[in-house]
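SAMPLE LOG
Freezer: B-3
Tube label: C17
Construct: single chain, 116 aa
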Amino acid sequence: MQNNKVEYNIRFDNREFTIFILKASNGCFVSISEGITHRLGALSVSVVGSVGASTARVIPSKYDSIFLDMLSQRIASMLNGICIISMSINAPLDAAVMKSIMNNIVAYLSDRSNAT
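STRUCTURE (predicted):
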């Protein structure tokens, strides 16, 4: 498996986020950290089953837990596997930032989904 990990920064208004994605043959790990330093934070795990994606909040989020669960489920369904997401943010995200982060990650994974 080549190119199974990527790290990049994105900026929205005055906030910067570091995105790290580690792709495996049966799913992926995604880390979203506010700032340029990697930090572990809230943790959601989704796995695709026969009825759809099931999600468990391993470490609850202080902010935007529904966004975290939704992103985890979407990625797990898209990859037909497991998605583990860690998110460490300093303040709630507005809808435009959530949408941009989700679209950015999904676009990357959909471009790479056939490569692994």
